[in-house]
Fold each of these.
Amino acid sequence: MTTARPPIQGVTTLPARSVLPRLAVSSGTLEALKWMGLVLMTLDHINKHLFDAKLPGVFEAGRICMPIFGFVLAYNLARPGAMLRGTHLHAMKRLAIFGTIATPFIAGLGGLVSGWWPLNIMFTLLVATGTIYLIEKGGIAHLVAAALLSFFGGMFVEFWWNALTFCLAAWWYCKTPNWSALLMGLVATASLFFINGNFWAFAALPFIFMAPHFKLNVPRIRYVFYIYYPAHLAILFLIKK
């Protein structure tokens, strides 16, 4: 007879109907995923803003970015002791600062639905992190606040509730691998069709689920994602101008 694997020490677990294999990704491999997302994001933005989205296959490849970034964030927030170390609060501060810095460049580049709306991916990850933080805090008041934040926040950020749901599902799965979290993640990924117009977001999942099988030695450069995001948009803005 087999028994369910015990939860990671120091991490609050969520209800699960069935336990699945835990994703244990090395720091180097996680960095490799992040760099893959950055490269694809950059190519996607170059294609959109400098080539009128005419480069073949680049738009499709760019749909992989959001699930990759969402997973990396979720994995880090689900690490043992993340709440005690202040990981959530530090991430929210950086996402808010660099998301704000990037906003005028994105608005200047154009291509948004309306003026400044929706807010860029940094704010999407900010709302997801804030929602997860409130859920981690526990208690009825915090859970209600988490629901309100995700509902109203989803109105204003890139990829809307679809991305928030994916981030929450990824975090839930990383904390307590189970069928409910997996199904939630798959549904969220499929729902990105209504934004992307295709199912290319699913192409991110093989990279995510294969990541534990590779031990890549990619060094972590602190704050590179936060700095790179507004920086590359500023460069594109100056080129386009």
Note: Residues 1-11 have pLDDT under 50 and may be disordered.
Amino acid sequence: MKQIVVISTGGTIASRWQGSGFAAEARGGDVLATAVVPAGLSVRVVDLMSVNSARLTTAQQLTLLRTVREVLADPAVDGIVVTHGTDTLEESAFLLDLHHDDPRPVVLTGAQRPFGAADGDGPRNLHDALLTAASVRDLGVVVVFDGQVHAARGTVKVRTLAADAFADPSGSPVAEMGADGVRVLRRPGRPAPLPLPPAATPLPRVDIVMHHCDADPLFFETAVKAGAQGIVLVATGAGNATPEISSAVREAVARGVLVAVTTRVPAGPVAEIYTHGGAVDLAASGAVLTGTLRAGQARIAVLAAILSATDPAERADALRHALGGAVPAATGARA
């Protein structure tokens, strides 16, 4: 029997009607009871928390990270499934992946429809997540939803309500569910894992600021004044803003703030193409371009970099490391 541990954190998959809306309430064992457990698996449930994921904090995400590490300290465990709310699942998945140093899989899943719904997608997603956790290795942390298996890096919520909620707009799934089990399509590129942050490390403020027509540096500068140690600038196009914002970035970096640049465009990388406040100037001002990572995961990369070092230059290096990846292995293998 393969041993899989389900870590329950709440979300829609565990949500019941509260009189005016849904909120996470069901325990992990109740959620597991809705799904068909694949043959040959022994499943243990850890009720870690029960929260709508829009309310999730960095402290809770780090608790999840440490819990995953503690569970994997048992060599008898073959894999982990984390049930999670979809609002911030992409952020937790990427944080786990940045620190994941084990060939055994960690699989995140959830639901778009609440616990007990007649047309609920949670039971199928949980079944597929359990099967994936028992079948694959060396894929890092993955997201299983609507019959697809996505690498944590780059995968975001792309639909607010539909069952096929997750995708990598700049990439493709790493595996898929088939009649004969889990079929691996490719191996995702992943940098060497970061070490776990010390438990007593103070949690930094990391903010996200979006650029738009008529935007000035006000909110960026406000984040700096509020004590942000990191800021993600969500730029336009391939990573462009204005000369005034570029100047604000330069001043923030000079004060030791770690600044990253992503884009509000759904797919494609940010790139140094334009000046007059564009990515050319933002990079020259000390900002780090985040490739194809979008805002939520770019913030997680900045957070992880800040937690890994105290020196601003070392933090920037750690961020660049978190953004990198190894060359993917050959595709087409079967799990």
Note: The chain has a mean pLDDT of 95.
